[in-house]
Amino acid sequence: MEINRPAAKGVVTLLCMFATYSAQDFCHHDKGSHSNAGFSGEMEGSQHLHCCGNVSYKISESSCCNGNVTLGLSQLVADCCDSVAYNPLNEICCGGRILTRNSTHAKCCGKVMYLTTTHLCCDDIILELKENHSCCGNKTFDMTTHYCYTDLTLEIKPYNETCCPKVTDSDSEYKQGSCPTCTLPKVSEFMCGSEPYNPQETICCSGKLYKKASTLTKCCGKDFYTLLDDNVLCCNGILHLNVPEQSECVGGVIYAPPNTICQMFARPRLGEHCCGGKTFDPHTHICCNGHSHNKMKGNFCCGSEVYDHHNQLLRCCSGHLYKLTRLSGECCGSHLLEYNNNQTCCSSSTNSIIYDTKPNHHCCGHYYFNTSLWSCCAEHLKPTPKPNSSLAEYRLKPLTDLIPDMCNKTVFFGKVESLALENDQRHVVLKVVWQVNVKSEKFIKDPWLHVSMDHCSSPDTENGMTYLWEENHERKYKLLSHPVDLTSDMHLLYAVCYQKKG
Description:
By secondary structure, this protein is mainly β. A hairpin with a 2-residue loop joins strand 35 (about 315) and strand 36 (about 320-325). The relative contact order is 0.06.
């Protein structure tokens, strides 16, 4: 089935009219590393909008393909079919046409879709798949009795004929089914991006190759240096040159006697704290992403802003602060998803993406899949649909999205010590790192808990990671959050809940 999608130029125009910043002022065409999709980078002065040619869009809700915006499908999970975005999980692009997948084994043969389980595509011609057969040009041959001669022309010949010339270093590839005496040249086991390299002679720093001066050559982000270099300091992946002797890196800031710097702004005295390019007094102010705020305005950061978490009309979504007009809506990553707007949020520990709600579709982590094509088990997609399988009824959230609602429940931080699978049940041994019920202040006596859950319908859990869990009255345990940072997240939960209790 071919999908027809109008250009929706009028809708894109409306999108731009309501954008916070004028696209003409901030959107500049820049192909960059995303030139294959037409993506041109984040708008200056905006934390939410990106540029697509001369128009602005949100990558969590729309996509950019060759300068054209497709609404309702996030660029994070979309591919481009010419100038239109599509969901490769449920659709396929064949020769510039978007087709609805009829199977997870569907592939393109020119402009037509075919099944790899029943047919072969040989030079854009679909042929019936037979056992031990492969393509040789636009024909198939039996690989057990014949080979495909791949010199100037393609010919099918029986094995009793000699086929292969002497292999040289310039020989790079042979088609499947070529003479078994042919061998491929060896490829380096060490790759820097897509380029092979010799680690004895070169060093790979974040995808860039540099010639090694000695074994003392080290990487600092994308740059390199040697341990013998004077006045050089690697600080949090950034290489600083011409720094004074005895300089030290502390928290991303270079301290150099007798003076030090806050992001290149001179500061005369040691012992002061940096907040961006200025100093601040942590007793009276709070530093949020390089911006200093008076503590009287609130004592929690949301990105570079400060807010009062007791104010129910303020919602912090992954560093972006929203002012609500009514008590509704939830966070989907850094965006606010309002209720009853025919949209769905699918999230994992790496991404949170908004989709237009469709029938027979469901979330699997941050993917939105057609249940007739795929099945989902513990946030992992499988190309084996199971009509009667149990689907996840809830999704994990960042800890900040759960506060302060969790203050009235019995919750605890539990570290996954070991995992075991038995039939359809996942058995988890948890080490209780910290737990307290703010109302009763009853602690869990046994620091080791054994939790069982339905494997496929429950979110994924990783060994060694710590999560927020909830205990109900029947001593049943429910996984609530994405993996947490113990130090900062325990402090956040403790501070918010006990301030609320007070």
